[in-house]
Design goal:
AB_hydrolase_fold; Plant_Biomass_Hydrol_Est; two-stranded antiparallel sheet; globular; 8-stranded mixed beta sheet; single chain; 10 strands; 6 helices; Acyl-protein thioesterase 1; signal; Rossmann fold; alpha/beta; hydrolase activity
Amino acid sequence: MHAEQRRVADDGLNYLVIFPDDYDADASYPLVVMLHGFGANMQDLAGLAPSINRKGYVYVCPNAPIPFELAPGMTGYGWHPPRGQATDEHFNQAESLLDAFFTEALNEFRAEESRAVLLGFSQGGGMTYRMGLERPDKFVALVALSASLPDPEILRPRLPDHREQPVFVAHGLHDQMVSMDSARRTREFLDAENYNLSYHEYNMGHEIPAEVLRDMVPWMEALLPPLVEETDRIF
């Protein structure tokens, strides 16, 4: 696998593209879009790609727009300021930038007609809910890891009439960053709205261990099968 850094126009998001092994530019690969958490950057979730599938997907990882000084000389990025400090303007900016990014990435890699999965961790998982639930035409499924939707009532009017879009949720019983209660409230909201929810709680903290991937990857591959070259087929 190899990666390239790109940018959406002059004022858009920087993003990382991770190409699969033996990438064929003429082939039409399904797309996995990964949104990092607060204080990280576009490199953060790139390491998941080999653990998901090395040959069958293209992965794209946008960099959140707002820089934060985490410590002297150490900068991380967020989709919006920490909870309690974010305003509607912050959310509107993030959504506008992501919308432009989705358009570019889905067009470039010919992933129209629900041939993409949107995955997010922590704050990126919250943005996955905000951006993905109203876009079932773009994303065949959503994955929210160690995340929650703090104000679901804001999102309710934006939901589509038909809500068959599958959603995979993984949360740690010992998560000290995003509370278990907030994750369960998000589950209750999705259940009440009749979403196709695959909800999991793990004996973990704020992280993505191997046991989460063991559940997530087969679920994802069943909904968005990886590209299989003829030489990879078993006869």
